[in-house]
Amino acid sequence: MGTNPQKAGMNPDTPPASGPVTPFSIPNIRRYIAFKVLFNSRFYYPVFTILFLDFGLTVAQFSILNAVWAATIVLAEVPSGALADTIGRKKLLVFATMTMVVEVGLIAFLPTGNMSLIFWAFLVNRVLSGLAEAAASGADEALAYDALKKYGDPKEWGRILEVLTRFQSMGFIIAMTTGAAVYDPSLMTAIADTLGFSVSLTRETCMRFPLYGTLFLALGACWATAGMEDVRAEPVATAGSSLSRSSELGRAFGLTFKAGAWILNTPFVLGVILFGMLFDSSIRMVITLSSQYYRMILLPESLFGIIGAGVAVLGFFIPGIARKLAETRSHRSGVWLTAGLAAAGLISMNFFWPWGGMIPALITYSAMYFNGFFVSFYINRETPSAQRATVLSFKGLSYNLAYGLYGIGYALMLKLQRQALDTDLTGQALDNLVFRESFFIFPSLFVMGFMGLILIFALFLKTE
Fold first, then answer.
1. H helices within 421-440, ranges in order?
2. I need a labelling partner for 294 at 20 to 30 A (CA). Which of 9, 116, 260, 306 fits?
3. How far apart, in whole angstroms, are the C-alpha atoms of residue 337 and residue 340?
4. What does the buried/exposed string (b/e) look like for 57-66 if buried means 16 or more CB atoms within 10 Å of the residue's CB?
5. Where are the domains of the chain?
6. How does pLDDT run across 50-93, given as a tens digit for each residue?
7. Distance between CA atoms of 190 and 179, rounded to whole angstroms?
């Protein structure tokens, strides 16, 4: 569905007529950056795993809930991308931010004590979160990239990704340090005493503070998407001047199959997606469990936010390195660099060195930054505008399908590992032992998956 031409100065997405046009003079680009920061910089991230556990859920339930989250994205990812390419990318982004408000608000005010209610509330939260992620995935990048392509220079996309990552890093630093600090009842009680308030804050009270902060960010994300404008870099052919809802849905499904066939017949893009999927699923599962890992290497909870901020600092300089590599070197350089960092980090994390275990963790997290940059850079460069959101949604589909299968498999492994252990430990001590004994699965699956993909592309798929 194309966009109608508008008079100069009347389209809010048109850069100023006077002065040089820079990528950041395009309103969609600025709002895209604001949306990404507000949507993704969540205050509960540094305590994500233990937040679930402190509500009373088990590690196995946590894994199952995140598998449900990933499954929801898998089911909604590609249809939402195709709808974004037909009915409009802005509508999907507005839906995503409004859904984020509901999903965070649901657990922010959830009472404790009734475990059945808590599990079902978190289940609904995971489903809504998955729908929000699916709606935003692809539509956000497509809206920004096409605005750049129409009003600026698409060669500047690498620069935008670099600036975006730095702003996201700033957001993560604020969210991580604040989120972990307000989660600590001792620290918050001490701060209250210093300010002259005689209160004794409990864990149950403090564990909601990161959720309240994230709810505030969700409202900000709503503001960012409300001011965006749908724009197309290229006209989209339609069968007639107007389309009914059923025609739009039919064309969305047609675009889904067309984009899927295009990916399968474009080995380079297929390779980018598959390697990106392997890196993302392997590292993201470890990041999801990072707060439990920090406990295992004897780090106090009050430092979790500082650690998250330290990780976010990587985003200030890694994008610059990645952009130079992407613009001056072969894509193979990026693949091997990312794989080397991921393998070295995941293998070393198995030793659970007290405090020193942060070094391999930082190496692993750096691979995630490189992977995110390279995948976005190459896919947007190669994909036609008319199916950009759909192709990006296929990327998101593959990522979350792999992540969901990882979550289900890991939950089953935890259950089997727990049954196989001959120990009298119970509760948190048993969870810690099971976590330690099962961690080897992450580097093992990554190395096997990487070598398998290298073999497949060497024998059957040729990329330039």
1. 427-438
2. 116
3. 5
4. bebbbbbbbb
5. 24-231+244-459
6. 888 888 888 778 878 887 887 888 788 777 777 777 778 889 99
7. 16
